[in-house]
Amino acid sequence: MTNLFLVCYSLTSFAAGYYSSRFYKQYGGTKWKNCMILTAAFYPTVCLCIAILLDLIAIAYGSTSAFSFYSISLVTLIWAFIACPLVLAGTIFGRSTSTTGDFPCRINSLRRPIPQTSFITSPIIISFLSGIVPFGSIFIEMYFIFTSFWSYKFYYVYGFMLLIFLILLIVTMCITIVSIYITLNNEDYRWHWISFANGASTSVYVYAYSIYYFFYKTHMSGLMQTAAYFGYMLLFCIGLASLGGAIGFTAADLFVRRIYQYIKSD
């Protein structure tokens, strides 16, 4: 499973570099090198920090589950010589095929004041509440996945899991579009990070559920088991937040472009 994850992550690095640089240039970003470095290094750095912490705890307990120097070196070489060059190639290709300010209508350079809204329609509350519906669509399946992973029971219905994953993507897109529509109706033009937060908020509920699952569904105890559980769940939720945020932003970007494409520039 770990090898499959590494291969998939490395081979999709080109797409990560392409889309990050494309969106970054479209919205007028100039520090494209910083964007490329963050794309290539953010999640691997988080994984490395958590893995080192868990490895130190495992070594202190004398456990055989500690990562060997060979394994860490191999993962580092895969990231340095496969993932990073693919991110660089994707960044160059994305910048060469995108245009700065490629918007369907004229954009006013002066920022308008944002009207004050009620508490329930504030961007923070909308983003936080947006994760409830996507989490509800995967709640039942999360129990079986957690049971398979942490209680060492067999999991067979991979086709159904793929269906649930597709449902999660569709529901995330729909709920993000609705949230951005409410945001734009409130004359709040800061929809970019709001849409990302809408999609990423599902991971907050997943991590909260993992806390409940740990205390009420498992029999783990001790520092090593607790650290391993919450460390790996944190990695999973950060990855889920990145995925959900990217899906939410992409859906919001297409939605905003669609509703504004009929506005004349003159």
SSE diagram, text form:
Blueprint: H1 2-11, H2 13-26, H3 32-60, H4 69-96, H5 123-130, H6 132-150, H7 158-185, H8 191-200, H9 202-217, H10 222-260
Helix pairs in contact: 1-4, 2-3, 2-4, 3-4, 3-10, 5-7, 5-8, 6-7, 6-9, 7-8, 7-10, 8-10, 9-10
Note down, in words, how this protein is organized:
- The protein has helices at residues 2-11, 13-26, 32-60, 69-96, 123-130, 132-150, 158-185, 191-200, 202-217, 222-260.
- The protein is mainly alpha-helical.
- It has two domains: 1-102; 118-266, no CATH class.
- Helix 3 packs antiparallel against helix 4.
- The radius of gyration is 21 Å and the shape is globular.
- The mean pLDDT is 87.
Work out the helix count.
10
Helix content: over 70%
Shape: globular
Let me know the largest β-sheet.
none
Q: What integer value in Å does the Rg equal?
A: 21 Å
Mean pLDDT: 87
What class do helices, strands and sheet pairing give? mainly alpha
Number of strands: 0
Task: Write a brief caption for the model.
The chain has 266 residues and is an all-alpha fold. It has helices at residues 2-11, 13-26, 32-60, 69-96, 123-130, 132-150, 158-185, 191-200, 202-217, 222-260.
What labels would you give this structure?
single chain, 266 residues, mainly alpha, 2 domains, 10 helices, 0% strand, globular
